[in-house]
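sorry to bug you again but im stuck and you know this stuff better than me. what follows is a protein written twice so to speak, once as letters and once as structure tokens for the fold. mainly i need to know what kind of three dimensional shape the backbone takes. anything you notice is useful, everything is just below:
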Amino acid sequence: LASMLGTRRALSAVGRRSLTIMVRRVDAFHLGVLLALFERAVGLYASLIGINAYHQPGVESGKAGASEVLSLIRDLRSNLSATTDAPAEDVELIREFLLPRRRE
């Protein structure tokens, strides 16, 4: 609380406005309401400044890349010594964090 109030005071002292939103309970309903508020605020602000906040060309590329990585994970799980054309760094991370450890 002290950090929040101190930040509000500091912002106010230099003429910066701020908004504090407090919720009485942190549960699924109240977090959902808060997220809906933020979604609408982003959409409204974007329309005011003339941009499309929901145009995200990188999202489809990200989905395609994730699909390739999931396929790679499946391949490596089915054959731990598989060779692949995937970037070596990707394979190393998958083997380190997602595959069962080999017992020596």
